[in-house]
Structure formats: structure tokens, C-alpha cells
Amino acid sequence: MMKYLIVSDIHGSLPALEQVLAFYREQQCGMLCILGDILNYGPRNGIPQGLDPKGIAERLNAMAGEIVAIRGNCDSEVDQMLLDFPILSDYTLLVDNGKRFFLTHGHIYNEDRLPKGRFDCLFYGHTHRWKLERTEHTAVCNTGSITFPKDGNMPTFAIYCDGTVSVHRLDGSRLKELSL
Can you give the residue ranges of the Calcineurin-like phosphoesterase domain (predicted)? Predict the structure, then answer.
């Protein structure tokens, strides 16, 4: 049984990423799904605590075989030059035990602009506001941001394992869970 950790909007913060990776190892996850905005903090954000794009690249490159990554609106071809795993796709479809997951950053596809096709859960980030709910057609999980959460939210990421999606704080505590 594979356990997936899904994270978005790292924006260059090495301390935030290291907290997520500690949880990833502790929980014995098998795949890290990164939904974009990995290295660059973006022109509309402040400079994050522990800004270290090269340090992030080193940590993630060491586990490149365990990563599926999507391009965010702050990711570029220059970022790809630092990373040993592909990041330039706008989305990917992941299938686990018959469950279909649409992974995207959120600036192109999101719950208001759903892609065509059938999937059990839409995972995205971009807004920096976590959400986990069931809609008429699918489940929706916005992982939030581990670096720049908005609207008073805390830094968050998601886990998928054995038919269940959950959203967690950086300390690993669970905020919400949804069975698919």
C-alpha cells in the first residue's frame, strides 16, 4: 500500500520543506507529489524564512526517484535546470488501486475550471488556502502552502493512503480527513 505526501507552494523555504520531509520519512511515505512553486518565492510574496533554493534542490534531488512534480506559476525552465526530476507539466494523472487523482498547481485547472475526464480527487494548491471537501462530481483537496498560508491559515500539506485523504499542519497533526 503506497502512502503519498502531497505538498504545494514551497516557495524556496528550506526549513518548511525539511519539516515536511521529516514527516514524509517518519510516516514511511512512498511518493512525494509536489504541486508547483518549488524554488522561487514569487514577486507578490515576501522573502520566506530560510530562503535556500539550492538547498531545496539538493534535498529533493537526493530523492528524485520518489517525486512526481507539477509546474506552478512561479516555476520556470531555469528552475528545471537545478532539479533532477521533471517539473514542467501543468498536470498529471496518478492512479492508485483504481482511484484516479488529477494533480495540478491550480492556476490553470482548479475546482472552478475542472479538466475534462473522470477522476476521484482533484489535488491543487496555488491559492495558499487549504480545503478538503466532496463536490457533486469529485473530491477536492487544496493542500494550502507550507510557506505562505493565506487568510489566517497555518502551513499545510496533504496525505493520501488507502482511500483516505487528510490535510495536516507542519507538525503532522491532522486538520481534516475524507474517505474517497
Answer: 2-159
